[in-house]
Specification:
Keywords: Sigma factor, Transcription, Transcription regulation
Protein name: Sigma-70 family RNA polymerase sigma factor
CATH class of the largest domain: Mainly Alpha
Pfam family, one: Sigma70_r2
Number of domains: 2
CATH architecture of the largest domain: Orthogonal Bundle
CATH superfamily of the largest domain: RNA polymerase sigma factor, region 2, helix turn helix motif
Shape: globular
Family: Belongs to the sigma-70 factor family. ECF subfamily.
Radius of gyration: 19 Å
Structural class: mainly alpha
Number of strands: 0
Length: 187
Amino acid sequence: MDNSNIVDQLYHNNQNGLKELYKIYYKPLLYFVMQYVKEKQTAEDIVAETFVKVWEYRHKFLAIEPLRSFLYVTSKNLTLNQLKKASFKYENIDVNSLENEILSDSNILDKIVKTELLKSIFEEVQKLPEKQQQIIRLTFIEEKSIEEICALLKMSESAVYTNRSRAIASLKKMIGKNPILEFLITL
């Protein structure tokens, strides 16, 4: 489903639009929120609440760009609210510092761009063969060592190195063919 269909379905009260939006933006928003809220469950709750807000305001969106902005701004605001609540529980949290960091336009823009870049790269990783996807995920997302990857996937070190090299070479080619990704990487 393309972006205009998602917006159209949301506008017409079709929950399939929300489901598609969720599939596309759940992981990027979770990553974005996790940069400020270090507890995964709290971040997941914030992202879930963000999608509830999208459904509440679904009739206001006529294009994907305002909707994407709404997702990030809403998740940012919900994160700030959560951090303010947390400051009452934990006196050692400097909410003012975190709030300044989140509200800093250049900082928030950098994090949004980084999140969108990672979302695009993740989409390209999904096009790789299964073993290469696993090795990329274990290497760069889970930060496993070669030895740990070998044990998990029951592969030799040379096979892991070979698959990782092929995956990286394929990703470089894919990124080179995508001018938007190439541009984002240079930022």
